[in-house]
């Protein structure tokens, strides 16, 4: 599960990096500590134009064709959405806090996600994410910051595979999203058996194209990241509180002897992997929920 992440690009830079039009209306804010229920940017392909840029229309026959560019690529837009999917049929928006992630293995068939998987897929821009490494079964753990290897910790943009919905039972339409998870990347299973799905840049257009509705055509996207794509370093416990949001949250810190010994054991074979101590994608589904409440 992915329960905390960062998105540190401003609106202009994000739209440029995603080859998208910014429709956030100046409300996009960079964040070093994104938690569930936060409003954050997603990248989508509109199924048909929205008058004035408001709302999300229902699907129409042939919808989306008019937005394709001369190169026949879907036209991308950046919009704001609340993290935690609220299905269109839900009676209460509170369900969103329990649907911050969707499992890749069941996303095409589970009632909460199948409609969105068929027609409302999105990219969730991120520059990194956090997870907590547990030692000896303790409920407390060491937070880690995970980001693309070979990039500065705050600048390596990538995109999670997401789904979005528009809930219309309140005074105003509410757009929400969830992040899809899959098996952990090879060599990282000793940390946790799940990881957020990261969409390769080459598959961005296919993933968010509403004309692509065949699950088989999307199966190749829902795979673990290759080993070595991400790097991780320990960070201060301050990230555990959603009240904290500053660049210093991603700064590396020294780790305890116990944690160093655990990492050394995993490298030597005790944890069943061969990755260096600094490379790990740390994902805990239960822990993310508990930290999000703080």
UniProtKB/TrEMBL annotation:
What does the entry give for GO biological process? Answer: protein-DNA covalent cross-linking repair; proteolysis
Instruction: Provide this UniProt record's keywords sorted from A to Z.
Output: Covalent protein-DNA linkage, DNA damage, DNA-binding, Hydrolase, Lyase, Protease
Superkingdom is: Bacteria
Gene Ontology molecular function, alphabetical: lyase activity; peptidase activity; single-stranded DNA binding
Short name of one Pfam family for this protein? SRAP
What EC identifiers does the entry list?
3.4.-.-
Gene3D superfamilies the UniProt entry points to: SOS response associated peptidase-like
Disordered as annotated region, ranges: 44-73, 266-294
Write down the InterPro entries for this protein, in alphabetical order: SRAP, SRAP-like
Which family would the database say this protein is a member of?
Belongs to the SOS response-associated peptidase family.
Q: Which PANTHER family would you find in this protein's record?
A: ABASIC SITE PROCESSING PROTEIN HMCES, DC12-RELATED
State the protein's name: Abasic site processing protein
